[in-house]
Amino acid sequence: MVTEVRLPNLGENIASGDVVKLLVSVGETIRAEQGLVELETDKAVIEVPSPVGGRVREIHVKQGDKVRVGAVIAIIEADGAPARAPEPPAVATPPKPLPLPLPPLVSVHTPAPEPISAPTLAPRSAEGAPAAPSVRRFAREIGVDVSQVPGTGPGGRLSIEDVKAFAKRLLTAKVPAAPTAGAVPLPDFAKWGEIERQPMTAVRRKTMEHMSLAWSQIPHVTQQDQADITELEELRKRLSKQAEAKGAKVTVTAVALKVAAAALRKFPKFNASLDPARGEIVLKKYVHIGVAVDTDRGLIVPVIRDVDRKGIIELSIELAAAAERARTRKTGLEELQGGCFTITNLGGFGVGAFSPIVNWPEVAILGIGRASTQAVFVNGAFVPRLMMPLSLSYDHRLIDGADAARFVRWVAEAMQQPYLLVEG
C-alpha cells in the first residue's frame, strides 16, 4: 500500500512552514510515527512524523523549501503490500484569520466598508451625529467615528448598541495587513556598491510581522525606575546552591518572574487584554509569563505557566529548560501561546534602561537592565548599593501613567525585600 504523507494542520493561523532538515532518505525503511522532516513555523520547530511504517519511496521536499499545509511531503510504501494509486489530494483547511484590533476608520488609503444592511446615509459631521455624550465617549474609546455609524433610534439617533454593531461589521470586513518593512520600495543599493541578499528565516519574518502589528496597534509609553538588589543578590547566590543540585541556576530573571506574578495579582489591569471591537477589557484569572530568549534564529518567547503558584527554585529549573528548548529548536507551538505579560532581560549584554515593545495582545512588558554598584544616600550617608534599572512599557489605552508608576515601584520595592518572597 502506498501512502501520501501530507503536511498536517500545524495549528491556528499557521498555513505553512520552512523545511529545516530531512530526517529520512529515499529507500530507507521507517517505523510509524518516526520523524520525516523538521519544519520551522513561526517561532517553533516541529518534527513531522510518518503516520505509517514502510519504505520511503519518494521525498517531495528539500531543505529550505516552504511547504503549505496539505502539500505532499513523502510517499511511503508498506513492506510487502501491493502498491496502489495515491489518494486524491485533500483540500487543506485554511487557517483562521488573526483577529486584529479595530483599524482606523478615516484613512485616505482605506475606504470605509459599506454597511451590510443599513440604508444609505447622507454624509454628516461627527458633531452633527445625533448621539448622547456617553455614546460619543464610548465610540472614541474603541476608535469609531460616529459620523460613519447609522443610527436606529428616532431621527437616526445613535445608541451604544449601534456603535458596537458597526464596530463588529468592521472587524469582520477585510482588514488591511499591518505595515511591514517591505511595504515601501527600497532604493537600488547596488548602485553604490556590492550587496548581498539573504532570505529571512521564518522566525525573522514572524518577528517583523508581529512587531509591526504591535507598534501600529499599541500606543506605547515606557516608565523607568531602579531597584536596589543588594540583598536580592545575596539571596540569589544562596538559592543557587540548592538549584545547582537539581541542574539549574537561580537567575535575576527567575526572581523577576516571581515578583512580576505577584504584581500582576495586585494590579490586575496589567494582566489583561483590550477588545476594542466589543468595548471590553479581558481580565485573566491565570498568570502565564513569557520570557524573551536570544537564539541564533532570533528572539523566542516561551511562556512559563502558572508562575504565581511556583517557587523561585522551581521557576529557575523550568526557565532553564525552556531556554534550552528554544536554543535547540525544540520549543512546541503551545509553549509560545497564552502569555499574559512578558519579561526581557538585556542585562547580560551590558544594557541599562531601554524601551521594550509590548507583545500584543498583552498590555505590558518589563525590561531588566544590567545592575551596577552606585553610591546611594541611606540614613544620612552614601553607601554602595547594587542598583538594577527597570523599564516598563505599556499600552496607554488601558494603563495610565500613575498606574504604571505604582506597578513598577511595587516591583522595585519587592525586589528590595526579597526575603518576603514566598517559596512555593
Provide an overview of this structure:
This protein has 7 helices and 19 strands. The protein is an alpha+beta fold and 424 residues long. It has 3 domains: 2-77, OB fold (Dihydrolipoamide Acetyltransferase, E2P) (Beta Barrel); 104-174, Irregular (Dihydrolipoamide Transferase); 202-420, Chloramphenicol Acetyltransferase. Strands 9, 12, 15, 16, 17, 18 and 19 form a 7-stranded mixed beta sheet that branches. Strand 4 (35-41) and strand 5 form a beta hairpin. The radius of gyration is 26 Å and the shape is globular.
Mean pLDDT: 80
> From the helix content, strand content and strand pairing, which structural class follows?
alpha+beta
CATH first level of the largest domain: Alpha Beta
Number of domains: 3
Query: Proportion of β residues?
Result: 15-25%
Tally the helices. 7
The name of the CATH architecture of the largest domain is 2-Layer Sandwich
> Going by CATH, what is the homologous superfamily of the largest domain?
Chloramphenicol acetyltransferase-like domain
CATH topology term of the largest domain: Chloramphenicol Acetyltransferase
As a whole number of angstroms, the C-alpha radius of gyration is 26 Å
Order of helices and strands: EEEEEEEEHHHEHHEEEEEEHEEEEH
The residue fraction in helices comes out at 10-25%
What general outline do the C-alpha atoms trace?
globular
